Amino acid sequence: MLIVGLVTGHLTAGLRYQARVAGYREERARSLSEMAKALSSALVETQVVEISDKFVESSFRAKAAILLPDPSDKLEVPAAHGAMPAYDLAVAQWCYDKNEPAGAGTDTLPANPQLYLPLKAPMRVRGVLVVEPSKARLLMIPEQRRLLDTFAALVAIALERIHFVSVAQDTLIKMESERLRNTLLAALSHDLRTPLTALVGLAETLSLELAATQSEHAEKAGVIREQALRTSKLVNNLLEMARL
Fold first, then answer.
1. What is the pLDDT of residues 234-243, one digit of tens each?
2. pLDDT tens per residue, range 145-185
3. Order of strands, edge to edge, in the sheet holding 125-133?
4. What is the CATH number assigned to the segment(s) 41-168?
5. Which residues contact 46 (CB under 8 A, 6 or more apart)?
6. HEC per residue, the chain
């Protein structure tokens, strides 16, 4: 009976452990699914930052901050979203430039209480995720670290999607501006050239008729013709320059 009891207790403990592990995995899968869904609806970078802060805090009991690059690839200090970690901007910049993690649990500055993860997207690094857990040992658990890496990948993809949406919108605006410009030039070309062509033709006819009759106004008609031709040439040149 004693042996049976020991075996039964051992099996029960094993089943309980497996049940806890399964529960943790289910919770992680649910967190990833919820975060991916939330990030898919983000339209601007600030929304991505807020969503990331929320999920990192709830899943890892940690403070988080996302540092994003400016046009010169220098990381900027973001606006505060909740409780932010006391990060080192120089370490974050190194992480961004080298595309390598740094801080707690890594080979670079392992004594640092924060973990710096580059946000690696398919095209390029989109920023740095800084995480400061309430307990440093949480980052030492392999499954927790893999989950955090997956979180960072989701954030990076969301930031890259927003970037390309912005690029597409800018391109569309430029195309519409160019189309409007061409339409305006075509309208101006018609509205200016048509009356000038008629004026040149009338001045030419008047000049020839007055010259044939040796009228005293023939010289004035010639001046009108020359000025009409000069104005027509000037308008044509201006319209051609505007098309460049």
1. 878 877 776 6
2. 888 999 999 999 999 999 999 888 888 888 888 888 888 87
3. 75-76, 62-69, 125-133, 115-120, 102-103
4. 3.30.450.40
5. 79
6. CHHHHHHHHHHHHHHHHHHHHHHHHHHHHHHHHHHHHHHHCCCCHHHHHHHHHHHHHHHHCEEEEEEEECCCCCEECCCCCCCCCCCCHHHHHHHHHHCCCEECCCCCCCCCCCEEEEEECCCCEEEEEEEEECCHHHHHCHHHHHHHHHHHHHHHHHHHHHHHHHHHHHHHHHHHHHHHHHHHHHHHHHHHHHHHHHHHHHHHHHHHHHHHCCCCCHHHHHHHHHHHHHHHHHHHHHHHHHHC
d(CA 221, CA 203): 7
Q: How far is CA 168 from CA 44, 116, 163, in A?
A: 14, 31, 9
Report pLDDT digits (tens) over 45-56: 889 988 988 898
CA distance 200 to 171: 42
pTM of the model: 0.70
Domain ranges (residues) in the chain:
41-168, 171-243
Tell me what pLDDT residue 140 has: 79
* In contact, 15 and 133? CB cutoff 8 Å: no
Contact 78, 67 (CB under 8 A): yes
Nearest Cα neighbor of 120 from 159, 168, 156 is 156
CA–CA separation, 237 and 231 (whole Å): 10
Residue showing tokens 């001046």: 223
